[in-house]
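Much of what follows relies on a compact textual record of a protein's fold. Each token is a code from a learned vocabulary of local backbone shapes. The record below shows the convention in full.
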Amino acid sequence: MLKILTLAVFAVILAVASQSNQVLAQISGMKFKDLPADVRNHANEIRGRCKELGWGGKLHSRMQGIAITDLDGDGSRGLIVENEKLCDGYFPGANCSNAGCDLLIWKQVDRRSWKKIFDHQLSKIFISLGGENRRFQLMVVSIYAGSPQCKPVPGKSYFKGETCDALVRYQKGKMVWEKIEPDGAAADAGKEDSSSDLKKCVGQYDWDGGSTRFENQPGGFAGYTNCTAPEDSLIAMNCVAGQEGVNVTLVYDSGVRDTQRVKIHFQIGKQGFTRNGTASWNEMAGISQPVLKLKKSDPLLNAMANGRNANIRSGRKGIQIPLIRAGNAIKAMLHACGE
């Protein structure tokens, strides 16, 4: 699993890790047989699943994937269990999923009692343990953007691959989360941008538009896409020079079968629109997503070009997308199609 940190976050880790700690008691080593039953059972169950998917079962130690730490400097032990390391690899459906791997933490309550205090699926993990006692400093993690720890926008639907980064510390007897805001997100949020720089990001996603080729013909594209991976879109539009119409793909699960007709409702400010589309199976995302065919003169496109937010819904499924710079992107798409 990747352990990529920004320089700013890495600086925070170094600063925290360098702080001196007074140790009340030295953490003693533990063998696998000494672990709490819940931890042993969890490790054995996960490793059994991995073997069913072809893992050879070779371990450096039965303690592999299980780190002993002192969470708060009082000498009591904590156990950090990383599912990915339990099997020495990534086995979707066994120790991980396509969205990430589980990390669990147990805290010693007294000589014979332990309590699980952390259990989350994470897509990136960095753990800082410092000193001879391996005192827990902090973790830097990525977690699904719709999780409460990411402070998601109320009513907004998040794509499966969307994540936020966070610092996690142990303070006053509990794990405390601090979301890491993307550079410039607070300053840029809500601003209109009349410049032609469509690549400038607001958070992780942004509107972009321009010329491309579609079905081996010149055309244009526009969409609300991931800044670092343009193929990862939440809404994608394309048109072809000389042909009438714009194809609009909404990247969320429509909840209906492939090729089935589906009604899509758009609410942009005070304007409401309903359009008919067709569900199309997305093999990579594993979802049946709505696809619309709109005329280039459709007032819906004009509303999106001039609106601030779009609430898009099909039945109970839906997404909310900011429209900052959508106008520039849509104009760039239509211009590339000869409009």
User: Anything to note?
Assistant: The chain has two domains: 21-180, 192-336. The first helix runs from residue 7 to 17. Residues 1-28, 183-203 have pLDDT under 50 and may be disordered. The two ends are 46 Å apart (CA to CA).
